[in-house]
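Give me the fold.
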Amino acid sequence: MRGKIDDEKVLEAEIVTGKRSPAKYNKLSKGMTYMQIKSQTEKAMQVENTSAIQGLAMSNQAAVSSALSSKEGVQMLGRRAAAGDDTAPNIFFMLRNRLSEEYRPIFKRLARRSIIKVSKGITGRGLRGKVLTKTEYYPGVEEFDDEETLENFMESRILTYEDIVAIERRDKTKSGVLIFDTSGSLYGGKFVTAALAVAVMAYHLAHDNFAIVLFNTKAYLIKRAHEKVDIDELVNRILDSESAGYTNINEALELAGIELAKMKGKNKFAILVSDGVFNKGGDPRRQLFRFPKLHILGLPSKHDWGRRLSMDMVRKTRGRFSMVSSHADVPDALMNLLRHT
């Protein structure tokens, strides 16, 4: 009995200190009862140690869900969402199957608020690419094609407004598909990243055409080409998505390619976010004919053959490949890629 009391004191001290990873808190709480986990969660709520709350949820989702399903829990998550961190969506994905009908929509709304706030900050740092377009002169234009204007003058020796070739900088139009790997997401971490990535894509391509595909054992179309969906609904669709253990890149590329074919324009592309390690559906390279350009953001993996496969796919489609060191880096890496696509 004394040993259990000492364990609780050690865990409580670590919670107050607030410098441990979720995995460490999970290890410290192993073997504790429902009531002990709930009590420790309430202590973590008081000091807003969200890392401890996530670690405790790994040990007992029901106990943590019970503690957070309160006025204090909602207020704490509301503050974290307003601060623009990923606490609310992480906790939502960990506990969504344990939340009551009363609290699930509340936690979902806080998760969505957090995702939108973070994604707005990321897209605000990424300017749209510009293309130079020649046009007729009009009052207020600031740039000109000097060589072509001079040629027109040399032909007639009289310079009129019709001879002046102006240049406009216009936003580059784009048509793209985001393909996101959510396989093996035990605690929902990939879904949080996917939700942020989808929001970044939606904000950046708000006036363009895009589609979204999530995949694990099967591929799921989250947004179709030409479909008009507001950002709240898009994020909701991610928050309602289910996880599975297998990785079917082949089916995901097939579905994405079909949607991309429905889009018009010269600047068509797809972006795959995955470690490239497939274990269902067969070799995805059979689908590469569908893509004029396929970019890949490589997720960390213990299997180097997934990275080699990804590099082969981008080489064959004239795309770009870049690795991220963690899932947290994906939204910014995606924004950087979109800026230069």
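The chain has a mean pLDDT of 88.
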